[in-house]
Amino acid sequence: MSQYLLSLHAVKGESRGPQSHEEMESFMERIEALETDMRASGAFLFTGGLHGPDAATVVRRSEGELLLTDGPFSESKEHLAGFYVIEAADLDAAIEWAGKVVDCIGAPIEVRPFFDSRSA
């Protein structure tokens, strides 16, 4: 089994618009059902939603000292908004899970394998 990152990217300034209470409830029910399915299959390892890029702190080393700057590492419209870390037999299985996430949230998902240092 390999581990994969399923990442959701958002575009700064783009909004899906406000959701009604019923729409938000339906969304959360879909997410809960998806994660229940992931857990039951053994694929689920971890998930997280992130604050916007304005909440980021970049840490660098400069002349032996840590240098902290506010904001994202790179200036761009797109940023990482959330993710799942899953375990899957292969890329095809990870893509199947990504498709389920896409169906659930209605946004593209990037699938990326973790480097397996045990095989290096």
Structure description:
This protein has 120 residues and is an alpha+beta fold. The protein has a single domain, classed as 2-Layer Sandwich (Alpha-Beta Plaits). The protein contains two helices and six strands. A four-stranded antiparallel β-sheet has the order 2-5-1-6. The protein has a two-stranded antiparallel sheet with strand order 3-4. β3 and β4 form a beta hairpin. α1 packs antiparallel against α2. It is flat. It starts with a strand and ends in a 7-residue tail after the last strand. The model has no long low-confidence stretch (mean pLDDT 89).
Outline of the structure:
The protein has 120 residues and is of the alpha+beta class. The chain is 30% helix and 37% strand.
> What share of the residues does DSSP label as strand, in percent?
35-45%
The CATH class assignment is Alpha Beta
Major sheet: 4 strands, antiparallel
Give the overall form: flat
Order of helices and strands: EHEEEEHE
Fraction of residues in H or I helices: 25-40%
What's the architecture in CATH terms?
2-Layer Sandwich
Order the strands across the largest sheet as they lie in space.
Answer: 2-5-1-6
- State the end-to-end distance: 16 Å
Query: What is the name of the CATH topology?
Result: Alpha-Beta Plaits
* Mean of residue pLDDT values: 89
Structural class of the secondary elements? alpha+beta
